[in-house]
């Protein structure tokens, strides 16, 4: 759950239609005053009205005051959350450093979207659905809000005013309500977690393994989406991977996993998982799906294991009869790291609508020398294409910048957020 703290502003005002079985202890009497508890009325859910421009300005200005102390803020927030509400500690992994970083990124993302209601609702709804797997319940949200605003008040010091506290209270109430609504709607139609058995595993070199799993229950997702994964060796540690295939008749999903230094989940999957092991999947996430495209011509750009969702999208084009013309650009630092190129060339031989080009930035290879942004510029412009980007954040950002500078409208460039969801770990 996104975590925040409270000042002495007015109460958190929203309604939840269904009571929770989880109790939350009241805060100590000497703490910062907490928002009012969630009222379980049984009436339709309501949320705070949209924030005014003045309130948005207050929120952003106050965040800029405390942001230089971000590391201390996240440590303090979790310290008081676990001290006041120890029952929530079991929802989190033992190692909290990655979690603290992800909390800050989620908070910054929410503040960035605070004047974009459509995308804010989409982002917070996705968070709410995803948090079901951690056991987040409506009764937890006032506790989180109390601790978030108290943290902000402490680190903002004299800059924290009743007006700023009221703006944050209102914003948090809106965010919490969206998350709760999304979680409750999701609970009515599907589980929070899917057990899945490893049915195939193959090493692809360079610390990469392909892991294929079969969920024990129906698992509906769209090509291009990503999935949170928990292994039995690291409980409560979740890592997000894109499915490398469009939905199959047998229900299996394949993930391309690269073992990263210090990555508990990735190393367990690459070096420890064997056929027969059971892992857990969270709900699918992400909007980088084929239905987001408005045009027939598609440009796919992939770096490293970012090829996984692109491969799934290409399979989806094939499933739909190849009605799109697709150009795929693969990028890497060296030829040896040009991951998955042979498979994609075989796919291009079977599908006349698919064309593949490669780019290698740090090694001289005739015909494919250059960084992805430079190669894209050379073969562009791409303003008549829908563009899908996947790979390292720096690559995605530089490719997006190159494309927009050369005339591709931003609304035709699709990629998942650079931030991973708030409770993930490598």
Structure description:
By secondary structure, this protein is of the alpha/beta class. It has three domains: 15-187, Globin-like (Orthogonal Bundle), CATH 1.10.490; 194-281, Elongation Factor Tu (Ef-tu), domain 3, CATH 2.40.30; 290-414, Nucleotide-binding domain of ferredoxin-NADP reductase (FNR) module (Rossmann fold), CATH 3.40.50.80. The chain is built from eleven helices and 13 strands. Strands 6-5-8-3-4-7 form a six-stranded antiparallel β-sheet.
Task: Itemize the secondary structure elements and their pairings.
Layout: E1 15-16, E2 39-40, H1 53-66, H2 70-84, H3 97-112, H4 117-130, H5 140-156, H6 162-187, E3 194-205, E4 208-215, E5 226-230, E6 238-242, E7 253-258, H7 264-271, E8 278-281, E9 297-303, H8 307-319, E10 325-332, H9 341-350, E11 354-360, H10 372-379, E12 386-390, H11 393-405, E13 413-414
Parallel strand pairs: 1-2, 9-10, 9-12, 10-11, 12-13
Antiparallel strand pairs: 3-4, 3-8, 4-7, 5-6, 5-8
Helix pairs in contact: 1-6, 2-3, 2-5, 4-6, 5-6, 10-11
Query: How would the global form be characterised?
Result: globular
CATH topological fold name of the largest domain: Globin-like
User: Any idea of the CATH class of the largest domain?
Assistant: Mainly Alpha
- What's the architecture of the largest domain, going by CATH? Orthogonal Bundle
Please identify which CATH superfamily of the largest domain we are dealing with: Globins
The strand line-up of the biggest sheet is 6-5-8-3-4-7
- The portion of residues assigned to helices is 25-40%
- Helix/strand-derived category reads alpha/beta
The SSE order reads EEHHHHHHEEEEEHEEHEHEHEHE
From the alpha-carbon coordinates, what is the Rg to the nearest angstrom?
23 Å
**Low confidence ranges:** 1-48, 419-426
End-to-end distance: 18 Å
Domain module tally: 3
């Amino acid at each position: 759950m996104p975590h925040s703290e409270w000042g002495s502003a007015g109460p958190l005002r929203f309604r939840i239609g269904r009571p929770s079985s989880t109790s939350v202890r009241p805060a100590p009497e000497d703490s910062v005053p907490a928002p009012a508890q969630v009222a379980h009325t049984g009436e339709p859910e309501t949320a705070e009205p949209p924030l005014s421009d003045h309130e948005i300005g207050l929120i952003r200005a106050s965040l800029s005051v405390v942001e230089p102390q971000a590391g201390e803020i996240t440590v303090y927030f979790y310290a008081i959350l676990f001290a006041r509400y120890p029952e929530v500690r079991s929802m989190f992994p033992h190692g909290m450093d990655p979690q603290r970083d992800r909390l800050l990124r989620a908070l910054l993302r929410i503040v960035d979207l605070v004047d974009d209601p459509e995308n804010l609702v989409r982002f917070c709804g996705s968070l709410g659905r995803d948090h079901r797997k951690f056991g987040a319940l409506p009764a937890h949200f006032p506790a989180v809000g109390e601790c978030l605003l108290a943290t902000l008040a402490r680190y903002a010091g004299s800059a924290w005013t009743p007006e700023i506290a009221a703006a944050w209270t209102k914003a948090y109430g809106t965010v919490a309500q969206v998350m709760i609504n999304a979680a409750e709607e999701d609970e009515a139609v599907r589980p929070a977690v899917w057990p899945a058995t490893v049915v195939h595993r193959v090493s692809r070199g360079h610390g990469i393994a392909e892991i294929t799993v079969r969920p024990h229950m129906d698992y509906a997702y769209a090509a291009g989406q990503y999935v949170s994964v928990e292994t039995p060796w690291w409980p409560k540690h979740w890592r997000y991977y894109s499915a490398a295939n469009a939905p199959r008749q047998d229900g299996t999903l394949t993930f391309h996993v690269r073992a990263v230094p210090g990555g508990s989940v990735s190393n367990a999957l690459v070096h420890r998982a064997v056929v027969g092991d059971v892992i857990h999947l969270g709900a699918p996430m992400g909007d980088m799906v084929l239905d987001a495209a408005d045009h027939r011509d598609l440009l796919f750009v992939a770096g490293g294991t970012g090829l996984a969702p692109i491969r799934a999208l290409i399979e989806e084009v094939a499933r739909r009869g190849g009605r799109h013309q697709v150009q795929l650009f693969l990028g890497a630092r060296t030829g040896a790291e040009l991951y998955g190129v042979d498979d994609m060339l075989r796919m291009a031989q079977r599908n006349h609508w698919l064309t593949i080009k490669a780019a290698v930035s740090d090694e001289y290879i005739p015909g494919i020398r250059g960084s992805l942004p430079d190669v894209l510029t050379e073969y562009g412009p791409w303003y008549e294409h829908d563009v899908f980007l996947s790979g390292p954040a720096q690559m995605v950002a530089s490719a997006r910048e190159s494309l927009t500078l050369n005339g591709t409208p931003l609304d035709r460039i699709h990629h998942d957020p650079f931030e991973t969801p708030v409770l993930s770990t490598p």
